[in-house]
């Protein structure tokens, strides 16, 4: 029987809290504070706790700009000392349960493991699983690579990715004390978190740290190499006014300035180079030897079962928020195509008019949204599904459901709108307008089915749901896609027109 109050693991002894038949332990350190001389250095695994630690409150979140679309919760502190994780488990669990390790999204620049949306009470009780949510370094603190620009500074690269690997090793060592089964770990994430999941599948040293994977709205092709990483670092150093300054000045830069400068770079890079991100994992030839989209599309990723998919209207949120990340206007899309061809002359780029033809029935103004959605999310997802299905069971979905209010304001099934359904936290409070025009009953039913499918997959079963259509494995013959709506359906070759328009070439932003 799982102790509902105090747990002793190799990492130390932790006192949790029980509510609604779920015990949670929050703010557990998995790596030492990456501050001072450890800023922009590889994570150092945390030393075991001495005595009993009250794991009752979330740890600090990684410093970041304010983003109204990503509420971090109340009483949350921002601090570089942010490398912590949280564990939820059924209070009455008997025997080791499957573990699901969540990597939050936020364009590699925003978000945290403690967002109210990611309270795991609902999914733990319905699915009888152990959930772990992980903080990792974001923005310039997690993805800036100064190693080539300032080789004398002892700077490391791919820090956020290494944070996640360190957390997964913590899970392997410690999770049995919390009622989890270290031999059944599913890593799952959305947006940037989904990008980290598909990246992990291409990291050779990650093999054995997880046994199943779920990638939701992964920007799988949005990585870059050392050359682009150096250009971002140069931009950061210039923006910070530290050209020619000593290396120590960067490590002594107030964290508020790191965030401010990082935000300026975050906004500037996609404005000058549409379709690219300032901060993302780096194809460094070492930890990440090759671009993940290339590895996975060729069936060379870590061969674990995979669920992967996107939302029907991914890009509408970026237009609504006036985000610089997604190229929507004609001139920005044209520049993106030109830049991609220049980056890799060996790529056989599809003619832009051929691509536009796939959206010929879209209303005026929606063509750019469709192209942005598909080059950013849907096409990389199809390339990954096609290749990975040759080496492991793979399941492809598209989330099409949206509440009437979201349809009315033109968002539809936009980016991240599947998350409240998966986590069972359908509203953010009494003022949440999502179900102002109805749709709550349908949402509850969809939520129950998603939780069943995701958690049964974590158990090593087929991702089925009671009373719903079975979800066939993806293969190159049928190309079945589960369409998640009020009533789920399976559609063969849902993306045939897209594949025809974009062609067979795998495009990468690296």
TrEMBL record:
Which InterPro entries does this one have? AB_hydrolase_fold (IPR029058), CarbesteraseB (IPR002018), Carboxylesterase_B_AS (IPR019826), Type-B_Carboxylest/Lipase (IPR050309)
Family label: Belongs to the type-B carboxylesterase/lipase family.
Q: Which UniProt keywords apply?
A: Hydrolase
Which molecular-function annotations from GO does this UniProt entry contain?
Answer: hydrolase activity
Q: Where is the Carboxylesterase type B domain?
A: 5-488
Q: Sorted alphabetically, which PANTHER family does this protein's record hold?
A: CARBOXYLESTERASE (PTHR11559)
EC nos:
3.1.1.-
Please give the name of this protein.
Carboxylic ester hydrolase
| Pfam families according to UniProt | COesterase (PF00135)
Which taxonomic lineage does the organism of this UniProt entry have?
Answer: Bacteria, Bacillati, Actinomycetota, Actinomycetes, Micrococcales
